[in-house]
Every structure is written in C-alpha cells, then in structure tokens.
Automatic annotation (TrEMBL):
Keyword terms of this UniProt record: ATP-binding, Cell inner membrane, Cell membrane, Membrane, Nucleotide-binding, Transport
Protein's UniProt keywords contain Manganese: no
Pfam families from the UniProt entry: ABC_tran (PF00005), OB_MalK (PF17912)
Species: Labrys neptuniae
Record-level Gene Ontology MF annotations: ATP binding
Superkingdom: Bacteria
PROSITE patterns on file: ABC_TRANSPORTER_1, ABC_TRANSPORTER_2
Entry-linked SUPFAM superfamilies: MOP-like, P-loop containing nucleoside triphosphate hydrolases
Family: Belongs to the ABC transporter superfamily.
Entry protein name: Sn-glycerol-3-phosphate ABC transporter ATP-binding protein UgpC
Gene3D superfamilies: 2.40.50.100, Nucleic acid-binding proteins, P-loop containing nucleotide triphosphate hydrolases
Keyword Transport: yes
Domain ABC transporter: 4-234
InterPro entries: AAA+_ATPase (IPR003593), ABC_transporter-like_ATP-bd (IPR003439), ABC_transporter-like_CS (IPR017871), ABC_transpr_MalK-like (IPR015855), ABC_transpr_MalK/UgpC-like (IPR047641), Mo/tungstate-bd_C_term_dom (IPR008995), NA-bd_OB-fold (IPR012340), OB_MalK-like (IPR040582)
Amino acid sequence: MAGLTLRSVVKRFGSFEIIHGVDLDVADGEFVVFVGPSGCGKSTLLRMIAGLEDISGGEISIGGQVVNEVEPADRGIAMVFQSYALYPHMTVERNLSFGLRMNGNPKADTDRRVTRAAEILRITDLMQRRPKQLSGGQRQRVAIGRAIVRDPQVFLFDEPLSNLDAELRVQMRVEIARLHRELGVTMIYVTHDQTEAMTLADKIVVLRGGNVEQVGRPLELYEDPANRFVAGFMGSPKMNFLAGRTVAAEAGGVTVELVNQKGARLAVPLAGPAPATGAEVSIGIRPEHFGPGGSGDADLAIEVDMAEHLGATSYVYAGTASAEPLIIQRDDSRQWAEERQLTVAIPRHRALLFDKDGQRLR
Ligand code: ATP
C-alpha cells in the first residue's frame, strides 16, 4: 500500500508563502504528473514529498504514514533528477550499488538488485563504463537504475528528460511508461512538456501560483477544462480564445456575439444556468476543431498571416488588426494556406464558454 496524500500542504520561504494549502490523493500504483508555468511550485511540492524541503503547514502521508518528520531516506521514495547526479569517478555498476553498500545491505542482495535494474533498463553492457563514457540517454537510465535498486514505494521524477534531445526524449518517455507498467509502483513526475504529461499520466495536476487549478485524467483536462487557465495551458498549439458578449439566453443554451469577429454569433449549448444577457464572456476553441466555412454554427472571415506545413498536418496563423489572432490546424490545409482570406466555422459543440473571470460555464 503506497498511495500518497497531501492535506492542506503549505510552503513558506521566510515570510513568503509559495504553496497555499494543496490537497491531493494519489492512489497506489498511479502515475501522477505535475504541470504548470515556471515558478508555480511543482519542484517545491515534489521536494517536500521527498523530504528535501520542510513542510511549513499541513500533512504529507505515504502508504498511510504521516512523513512530515520522517527523514528522506526512510520515506520509501527514490528521486530522479534532471541533472542525473551520478558519481563521475565510479563505474555504472558502482553508481547503482553505492547507496545499498553504504547502508550495509548484504552483498548478494545488492548484486541481485543491481543485475535486475540493469536488465530492466537494458544497460547490462555498460556496467564497467564511467558516466562520461555514456550518452545522455544512457546516463538518465543509470540515474533511474539507482532509483530502482532502492525498491522504493514511490518514484519521484523532476523533469528527468529535459536535458535530452528531442529524439531521445521520445525514447526515454516510452521507457518510463514501460517501467511504470512493469514495476506497477506509484510515480510522481514534474514536467514542462505537454506531450510527456498527456502520454505518461494517469492523472495530471495543473498548478498555478502555488494552488491546484484542476486534477484529472489527461483527456478530461483537455476536453473538459474547469477554467480558462487550464484550457489555455493544456494543448499545443494552444486553444484559441474569442471575446464575446451574451445577446440572448434560451432553453439549454446561450447566444454569444463574437465582438471582434464582425458580430458573428454562436449559440452555445449549456447544461447549467445561462449568464445574464450582456455578460462579458469568452469562447474557447481548439485549433483542430474549426471546420470549413458553412459547416458549423458561426462563420469567421479571417485573413491568413502565415501557414506552417508539418507534413501530416498544417497550422494556419490568422488574424486581422481588429480581431484576435487565431491558430487553425487542418490536415488538408495546403490549399487553404494558399488563400489570403478564408472562412472557418466554429461547431457549437466544440465551443467552450468562460465567464469574465475565466470560470467555465457548462
Ligand atoms: P520551474 O518550472 O521553473 O522549475 P517550479 O514550478 O518547479 O518552476 P519551484 O522551483 O517549485 O517552481 O519554485 C516555486 C517558487 O518558489 C518560485 O517563485 C521560486 O522562486 C520560489 N523558491 C523556490 N525555492 C526557493 C528558496 N529556496 N527560497 C526562496 N524562494 C524559493
């Protein structure tokens, strides 16, 4: 049993509070990813779980035991850093076994654990090399291997792939997913990378300014964000936002006038109560959700600034001086991109509605 709970967790540096009372439940075996803009407190939260930072308020439990006062080495966790933190003068084998040997672990057991970790990570052939004789990806494997040999209840990863080039990152991302599947242990992972968060996580925690904005499965956050911040943060390229004003409320929805789009109107379905007529709102639409003109519920006449062709897909950047800049993703956009002006449609069931404070209206 090695789930994890955070209850009203607070962190202060001096008089400056940077984590404002975070609550979180992580189930045994779950893969949880912390995302959020730079400085939102992701690393600090992870370091508090690891015991590398004191907890200023609240409680952290691992496997049902409150660990606030428990030393890092006794928390049953292992942390993998972005910098790898390998001992440069030791061979890979020594790097892997060092911690266990220092703790007086029996040699036969240490050897067994090191062999197993090397097999899991496919680094058996590298055991006699030193870190400087390894590639970045191989070093990262050794760093992960050092965590595996400790047989932790919880793995913590702090941006482990950010020093690798794009191709290696993809490879290592797949490796980490495989590792999670094979070991079945709880993992908590901090990243800036959208794709890592979307592909690795069972559950994503979106942080902003030391608060949790939303917790959910990756697609839940992508398709059903609680507010404009989460909507804008998740997804690449980013969601488009269009300023609007409500002009009529009807049963099951509201009609919104898009104020910078030549008065185009869109009837947005709502399950809950409609905002008052005249309310300032915004409409969110993902780049891949626009349709060709005439296919949806609101047509926008836009000017194309530029197009990027990526092969399988293209991004059209559009906007005029008076309108919001838009990014439109099309799998068939080569022909669109050659036009200077085009009409795109917003299908009403793809439109997300936010009030003027950025809260989602559903
Ligand atoms: P990044 O994505 O840039 O790594 P992060 O979300 O991991 O950012 P943290 O490193 O947790 O953010 O930092 C959160 C806030 O706490 C930042 O404003 C940072 O400046 C501040 N902070 C971190 N460590 C300390 C410290 N030792 N003393 C004072 N302030 C700190």
